[in-house]
From TrEMBL:
InterPro entries: NagB/RpiA_transferase-like, Ribose5P_isomerase_typA_subgr, Ribose5P_isomerase_type_A
Name of protein: Ribose-5-phosphate isomerase A
EC number: 5.3.1.6
Annotated family: Belongs to the ribose 5-phosphate isomerase family.
Annotated function: Catalyzes the reversible conversion of ribose-5-phosphate to ribulose 5-phosphate.
Pathway: Carbohydrate degradation; pentose phosphate pathway; D-ribose 5-phosphate from D-ribulose 5-phosphate (non-oxidative stage): step 1/1
Signal peptide: none
Reaction equations catalysed: aldehydo-D-ribose 5-phosphate = D-ribulose 5-phosphate
Length: 227
């Protein structure tokens, strides 16, 4: 089964958890795209009344184009459910996000949601985190010094660059540094270290955050209850 189909299956399964009247956090990425397509169809066919809270300009535009009402997180008083993608999920349902440069907004929306669901294709599931580089959103100011510090700490940092060789910029015009660590033995310890480094606006470790993971595979989809 091809990867696109596995993403589609996961996105389409997740839309079943959205109920009339909900305020729904809308994640970012190619798997969430399928969720948005399926949600747009439900809105059109069933007259589902939901408010979407997008985590990126891309998701906001797509949702609007599909007829889904969207509001900024600061214009809603709660979020019932957020559905998002992930870059890697370990066997304890800890995750890495930020491959699509949106992890700051994604984390803000996730921590303000009553429930979080991740939708992924089966290639994202791993025993341990780390083979996917861990994204950090960092302030441009002082970033070369932060980079050197991360390098000395043995975290194998790399600035994320665009095709023209410039820095990839986040929604807040910050830079991304990816940590090519290959293996993260103790995610909670690393989280504490990164939380304490000045200049990191937010890192892509999403720990103890997801309630349900929907994995698209060659047989359809599997749903895991994480916590
Ligand atoms: C964006 C993210 C995405 O959720 C993550 O990159 C997964 O994207 P995709 O579904 O395209 O693989 O964290 O910052």
């Amino acid at each position: 089964m091809d990867k696109e189909l596995m993403k589609k299956v996961a996105g389409q399964e997740a839309v079943k958890y959205i109920e009339d009247g909900m305020t729904v956090g809308l994640g970012t990425g190619s798997t969430v795209k399928y969720l948005l397509d399926a949600l747009g169809k439900r809105v059109a066919k069933e007259g589902l009344r939901i408010i979407g809270v997008p985590t990126s300009n891309r998701s906001a535009k797509r949702a609007r184009d599909l007829g889904i009402d969207v509001k900024s997180i600061d214009d809603v008083d709660h979020i019932d459910l957020t559905i998002d993608g992930a870059d890697q999920i370990d066997e304890n349902f800890q995750g890495i996000k930020g491959g699509g440069v949106a992890h700051l907004r994604e984390k803000i929306v996730a921590i303000n949601s009553k429930k979080n669901i991740w939708v992924v294709d089966e290639t994202k599931m791993a025993k341990n985190l780390g083979s996917f580089p861990l994204p950090l959103e960092v302030t441009p100011y002082g970033s070369t010094h932060l980079f050197k510090r991360l390098d000395k700490m043995g975290y194998h940092p790399q600035f994320r660059k665009n095709a023209k060789g410039g820095h990839v910029l986040t929604h807040a015009d910050n830079y991304i540094i990816d940590l090519k660590m290959h293996y993260i033995e103790h995610p909670h310890e690393l989280e504490q270290i990164l939380n304490n480094l000045t200049g990191i606006v937010e890192h892509g470790l999403f720990l103890d955050m997801v309630n349900m993971v929907i994995v698209g595979d060659e047989n359809g989809s599997k749903t895991y209850h994480a916590r």
